[in-house]
Amino acid sequence: MTKVNKGFIVAALLLAVAIVAPIGQGNYITYTLASWLVFSIAAMGLNLTLGYAGQISLAQASFMAIGAYITALLTLSGWHWMAAMPLGVIACFIVGLLLGYPALRLKGHFLAFVTLAFNTLVFLVLRNEEWLTGGSYGLTGMPRPGFGLFTTMKQFNFYYFTLAVTVLAALVMWGIVRSPWGRAFTALRENPIRAESLGVDTRRITLLAFAIGSAYGGLAGSLIAPLVQFIEPGSFGLAHSLRILLMVIVGGAGYFGGPFLGAAVVILLPEMLRFTQGYYLIIYSALVIVMLIFVPAGLMGMGQRLREKFWPGRQQRADMAEGARLK
Amino acid sequence: MSKPVLSVRNIQKSFGGIKAVRGVSFEVQRGEILGLIGPNGSGKSTLFNCILGQLPADTGEVEVNGKPVSNIRPSDLNKLGVGRTFQQLSVFPKMTVLDNVILAGQEHRGTMLSRLFGPGDAGLTAEAEKMIEFFRLTPYRDTPAGSLSYGQQKLVDAAMAFMAGPDLVLLDEPAGGVNLTMLANLKDRLVAYNAEHGTTFVVIEHNMEFVMSLCTRIIVLAEGAVIAEGSPAEIRANQTVIDAYLGG
């Protein structure tokens, strides 16, 4: 069975689990599952920027904010979500493109600080421009979209709407990372000088990594507005960007399935540990620390390591083979 | 004589008070294999980087197929038909050998948008497989390049440099750190490629046996200036070169 076929079967199984997951569950669990999907989209975007293209960003929550506020303002003034969402996504693409410019000159922690400053800037604008954003009180009552007879007002229906958007977003992302662009993003991460010498326009591909990753943040934001039906600047602060970063790292940066697993750990695991009552956050934090120490490549990386250990491929290292032939 | 593939005129480059390259000029004709040799610090790598646009020269001009390429970005230079290899290992370690080689050709296919919406391999799998076969790497087609031996990674690097069908390839110490068996393989492949495609090579190398047997002409640099130029036999016999570099 080819690698692609295996991936397709795993994806189909996971989709089946996602379809049955909210059946028989109450509103809160269904809401939490929808949050997992929304943050998976945001993490998918950051995974492209950081995991595939190697460009650090601590601003993903600010793109969620831009997408959420544009969608909220437009839907509150009567626009349908389907018309408002693309504007939020396009705005994030353009702002992400602009944020990518510093990445052409800065790397590592310098770039991280630029994106961190951008996140803070967006937070301050949202808090201070009360006439537009409602300031610290935020915006409430965003309508959920309806599609003819199918309304998403019920939590259960909204979950399936979010699942459909997530599947579409994942398919688009799959198309991007499997295309020559995906190869160029990986080349940018692994060896930008060599990539440039092979004709890869590393400036353009860096900007695209930021723009597309940010657009996914905007899409997640445009879903969080009708999901929560209340947004305020504090929901998109630096701590939330760090949470999305944690999702990417814990899931496995640069792995397609990483963001889904990472978002599950960050969103769902604390809920699953609630039976421990007051200790659940301590246990959750300890588990994350242990995971990062022992599995720095994330859960997907751990999976690959286990596969290599227990089901090693037939390919042996070439220099070993050469060595074995020496007399 | 036809138009030279590479024309370097009066390149000068200083780092503070140190003159690394002092007015070097030369031309390379189509199909030629030119060696650039000289002791450490003679300015070979600086000259290479000035030709490839990775260091701006203080003065001088570089032309490829008659087009001025001074201050051009390396990606644009590559699209003008200039490939290169690096002194250090320069493969993409987590990508398979096939993906490494496809990457080297994909930016020459279609537009940026057509590459997004077109096939994942940019229609290059068959061509890349031929290149992999040419460099005798077929058993490692689906192996991550980073897990190959040093010499084989050098071969992958060379395969990438040739994938886009360049007119000119600059090879930066291709023999460095490569074992004798692999070195013979590399030389054999370079000679075969040159004979088959008429591609022009400029080679920086310290391995004299490799340079003398591969190159058709050699330029010797010392202290940033050209001290000798000629066929391998002429260079071997040149007393200035013997004194400055080869030794008695």
From TrEMBL, chain A:
The record lists the organism as Rhizobium straminoryzae
* CDD domains attached to this UniProt entry: TM_PBP1_LivM_like
Keywords assigned: Cell membrane, Membrane, Transmembrane, Transmembrane helix
User: What is the first-listed, main subcellular location in coarse terms?
Assistant: membrane
Pfam families in the record, alphabetically?
BPD_transp_2 (PF02653)
Q: Give start-end of the signal peptide.
A: none
Give the source's domain of life in one word: Bacteria
Looking up InterPro entries in the UniProt record yields:
ABC_transp_permease (IPR001851), LivM-like (IPR043428)
Q: Which GO terms describe its molecular function?
A: branched-chain amino acid transmembrane transporter activity
Q: What is this protein called?
A: Branched-chain amino acid ABC transporter permease
As for membrane topology, the entry says: Multi-pass membrane protein
UniProtKB/TrEMBL annotation, chain B:
Give the matching Pfam families.
Answer: ABC_tran (PF00005), BCA_ABC_TP_C (PF12399)
Coiled-coil annotated residue ranges, if any: none
Q: Give the protein name, as stated in the record.
A: ABC transporter ATP-binding protein
Q: What Gene3D superfamilies does this protein's entry cite?
A: P-loop containing nucleotide triphosphate hydrolases (3.40.50.300)
- Does the record bear Nucleotide-binding in its keywords? yes
Q: Which UniProt keywords apply?
A: ATP-binding, Nucleotide-binding, Transport
PROSITE patterns listed in its UniProt record? ABC_TRANSPORTER_2
Under the heading InterPro entries, the entry gives: AAA+_ATPase, ABC_AA/LPS_Transport, ABC_transporter-like_ATP-bd, BCA_ABC_TP_C, P-loop_NTPase
Q: Where is the ABC transporter domain?
A: 6-248
| Cited PANTHER family | CONSERVED COMPONENT OF ABC TRANSPORTER FOR NATURAL AMINO ACIDS, CONSERVED COMPONENT OF ABC TRANSPORTER FOR NATURAL AMINO ACIDS-RELATED
A Gene Ontology molecular function term for this protein is: ATP hydrolysis activity
Q: Which domain of life is it from?
A: Bacteria
Q: Name one GO cellular component term.
A: plasma membrane
- Keyword Ion transport part of the UniProt annotation: no
